[in-house]
Design brief:
Blueprint lengths: L23 H4 L2 E2 L5 E4 H7 L5 H17 L4 H4 E9 L5 E9 L1 H10 L5 H49 L11 H5 L4
Antiparallel strand pairs: 1-2, 2-4, 3-4
């Protein structure tokens, strides 16, 4: 459990109380059974201090437009669902909610009310997280590339050995193992 002080469900978290700890954006992050992370638009609106959800819906629509105009599939980043919430009598009612990817959150925060301090902090947070993901993706691609080069080098050496075993004596009759690996980026 967190040592964070409790806050009411209607009030946005104090962004300063989280310095060096989990951000309010990570506090509301959810993960599905497949391990994919997402955020509820209602939780996001509350964190950003939108008292009236209908005002936040306009921000989501701008973000959807930006997503579409950037060539991304909107349905991959903004998924509408009906979320069940308790009402005063203890009964439940379905309310429309949007489940948003990290990219969708980035677009939403870019279109949110810039006069709110939490929005500026969110813009910084999602910009940093986006850069971290880019670096991670680049590192994974570099590791994949090096693994392919190593595998190619091994196969080329095996091929050279097989050619030698087959009686080909002159190296000019078959390519050396190392130069072929240099063609793989």
């Amino acid at each position: 459990m967190s040592n964070e002080p409790k806050r009411s469900e209607d009030s946005p978290p104090n962004p300063r109380q989280n310095s060096g700890q989990i951000t309010p954006f990570e506090e509301i992050r959810r993960t599905n059974p497949a391990g994919n992370e997402f955020w509820s638009s209602r939780d996001f609106a509350r964190v950003l201090g939108y008292v009236n959800y209908r005002h936040f819906q306009a921000v989501i629509e701008k973000a959807r437009t930006a997503c579409f105009n950037s060539g991304q599939r909107v349905e991959d980043h903004f998924v509408g669902i009906d979320e069940m919430v308790e009402i005063g009598s203890g009964a439940q009612r379905a309310i429309p909610t949007v489940m948003m990817s990290r990219y969708a959150c980035y677009l939403v925060i870019q279109n949110a009310d810039p006069s709110k301090e939490i929005v500026a902090q969110g813009q910084t947070y999602f910009a940093i997280q986006t850069r971290r993901q880019e670096l991670s993706d680049e590192e994974m691609e570099e590791q994949r590339r090096l693994a392919i080069r190593s595998e190619l080098r091994t196969h080329n050496s095996q091929l050279a050995d097989a050619v030698k075993d087959a009686g080909v004596i002159e190296p000019r009759n078959y390519p050396p193992a190392e130069p072929l690996a240099a063609y793989v980026n």
